[in-house]
Design brief:
This protein is 76% helix and 0% strand. It contains four helices and no strands. The protein has a domain of 72 residues. Helix 3 runs antiparallel to helix 4. The longest helix has 33 residues. The chain starts with a helix and ends in a 12-residue tail after the last helix.
Length: 144
């Protein structure tokens, strides 16, 4: 296991080195812009996305009964990932007026349909668990 982890770490470092060499040696790149973008992503994640995810997860864990907790958390996770992946398409990032075939679909409608399906499955799972009368799992483990 340790050798596999070490090998994957070395492969990751090699990929980062390859990207860094390309960033600083290719003529069409602007390294400062890339570094500013990466800093913005890091700051946005650490000070916006992560606190919201922790808060929503804490509310879901503490505020829901045990039989609803698992499906709702899975629905929140699936919704977050789907929205994150679809957001550039919904916002039209990369859409150009001179190329109408670049992003030809209504991505907002598609995202809405997927989220409705996700939460329909969550609702069915919650109702089935409630009707099945499964025992409530214990709350969070740890000191009070």
């Amino acid at each position: 296991m340790r050798a596999a982890r070490l090998g994957l770490g070395l492969l990751g470092l090699a990929a980062v080195a390859y990207g860094a060499v390309g960033l600083f040696t290719d003529s069409g790149t602007r390294p400062l812009n890339h570094l500013l973008f990466l800093a913005g992503v890091l700051i946005g994640h650490d000070f916006l996305v992560l606190p919201v995810a922790i808060g929503v997860g804490a509310l879901a864990t503490r505020g829901l009964p045990g039989w609803a907790r698992g499906p709702v958390q899975a629905g929140l996770f699936a919704s977050a990932i789907t929205t994150f992946l679809a957001l550039p398409f919904v916002l039209g990032a990369g859409r150009r007026p001179d190329d109408p075939s670049a992003l030809p679909l209504n991505y907002g409608r598609g995202l809405t349909i997927v989220l409705i399906l996700v939460w329909t499955v969550v609702a069915v799972a919650v109702v089935r668990r409630r009707l099945a009368g499964r025992p409530v799992p214990p709350g969070p483990v740890g000191p009070p």
